[in-house]
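queue> pop job 88
queue> type: inverse folding (structure -> sequence)
queue> payload:
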């Protein structure tokens, strides 16, 4: 079975990685959104739900079995070890789900895997290349505030600071898409799309 090339797309909150993935999807390329898929799995995967309850206790789900996202966030926000333990049960289930999804994309030239956290291509993640979507900090803050107007600048900065740094992201990049409102976004993506098609046919 010939699996398609696997291209990772990552970037910090407010960088516009979801917008970049929407363009790839419009070009006919399948996109796996790890963050939204992880949310679905926490609600519907019985094995994962049991693992999360084991790590966090019975309050992780309400009486109807719905994920108590706000409560979980409050527990892990100030406890890095608890967050690490939670990620330790969620990430393996997402990886397995990703592998299953990729196996269903046979015949596609390549696929996109979007995630907020990503390793370099070839670092145990089955990725062939990694795209990092980059934007200036002030622009990211502005975008986040437009999307979540209830958040203060300080809250937004705190969220950004808890994420992987731009420098760390750029170190794993095979390609960088600049989403800075100075360079046109679409031509950058089209160039990458054409390059990935050439790679697949080589």
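queue> result:
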């Amino acid at each position: 079975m010939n699996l398609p090339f696997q291209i990772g797309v990552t970037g910090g909150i407010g960088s516009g990685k979801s917008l970049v993935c929407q363009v790839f999807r419009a070009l006919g390329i399948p996109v796996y959104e790890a963050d939204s898929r992880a949310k679905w799995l926490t609600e519907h995967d019985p094995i994962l739900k049991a693992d999360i309850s084991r790590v966090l206790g019975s309050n992780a789900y309400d009486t109807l079995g719905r994920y108590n996202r706000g409560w979980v966030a409050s527990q892990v926000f100030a406890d890095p070890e608890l967050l690490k333990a939670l990620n330790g049960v969620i990430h393996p289930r997402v990886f397995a789900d990703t592998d299953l999804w990729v196996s269903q994309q046979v015949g596609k030239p390549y696929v996109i895997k979007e995630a907020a956290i990503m390793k370099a291509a070839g670092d145990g993640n089955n990725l062939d290349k990694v795209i990092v979507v980059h934007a200036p900090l002030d622009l990211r803050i502005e975008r986040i505030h437009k999307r979540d107007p209830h958040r203060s600048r300080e809250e937004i900065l705190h969220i950004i600071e808890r994420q992987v740094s731009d420098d760390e992201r750029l170190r794993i990049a095979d390609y960088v898409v600049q989403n800075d409102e100075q360079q046109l976004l679409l031509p950058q993506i089209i160039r990458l799309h054409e390059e990935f098609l050439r790679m697949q046919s080589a």
